[in-house]
Amino acid sequence: MRRLPPLAAVRVFEAAARHENFTSAAEELGMSQAAVSYQVRALEEALGLPLFLRERGRVVLTETGSQLAGQVTAAFDTLDDAFGRIRDDDAATLRISAYTSFANRWLATRIGSFQLQHPDLAVRLDADNRLTDFARDDVDVAIRVGLGGAPGMHERFLMRVLYAPMASPAFIEEYGPFDTPERIAGSRLLNPDDRWWRRWFAEQGVTDPVIPPVGVRLDSQTAEGLAAIAGQGIAMLDPVFWEEELRDGRLIRLGDTIASRLSIWLVCPEHKRNLPRIKAFRDWIGDEVARHPIAGALLPPPA
């Protein structure tokens, strides 16, 4: 017969240990902070050992708590995987969360081919810039921008983040020429306070560009690109996402393409990496990226 402490208290401890914050655990579990504290104390009393040190309004795992947390999280991952397989039998759905620019400008135009290759698998794509919490969000895989190295996650490098200034032929004809970075800086920039502008000018050796203090500000790269196509100004865009518009001349690149230190990654919990639906998507998107015509996008991530 198993001698287990109350599982409700164990579940609360696992969330509190993962966040090392009772408030965040309470938000994840949909309960009050006081209830989290009560359940943790109940578990400590049952074990006869402290699991957290309470000091100056914060909590820190004790050595015992840290050892226990890793094993408990692994056990919950195993349970999640077991029940997930049952859920998979009932509804074969791949849930993808991708940041908005990648979802709208790259993945949405290709994801249909993945579903055709896997007709028994339903696909749900959510465009969302929020950091995915796999313990709480109904998501199988996420596609995010970063440096990589997320703890407990399986990551697959997809491509580097690239950026270059672009404008429509009509805008260039009316307001050009844009043959120097200084001429670009003095023109009508879309999202002029975007950090990518400063970084691009710095790469061109212009450390203090004179940028007009006012301009149009848009909430996504998709909106910026469409505004640039409509002749509204110069946008800083990733050429991978605007390949077709560059090819047919609706957009023209005005300067060098810069490779950021940031990269685009496919991310999922380590213990779920070999679920059939996730493996199928990981293999498919890897093949799609490998076929992409812009070779610069396939540079390996920086060390």
From TrEMBL:
Alphabetic keyword roster: DNA-binding, Transcription, Transcription regulation
Alphabetized InterPro entries for the sequence: LysR-type_TF_proteobact-type, LysR_HTH_N, LysR_subst-bd, WH-like_DNA-bd_sf, WH_DNA-bd_sf
One GO biological process term: DNA-templated transcription
GO molecular function, one term: DNA-binding transcription factor activity
Pfam families named among the record's database cross-references: HTH_1, LysR_substrate
Keyword Translocase attributed: no
Residue ranges that the Swiss-Prot or TrEMBL entry lists as coiled coil: none
The keyword Transcription is assigned to this record: yes
Domain HTH lysR-type residues, every copy: 5-62
Sequence similarity: Belongs to the LysR transcriptional regulatory family.
Name of the featured protein: LysR family transcriptional regulator
Organism the protein comes from: Parasphingopyxis marina
Record lineage: Bacteria, Pseudomonadati, Pseudomonadota, Alphaproteobacteria, Sphingomonadales
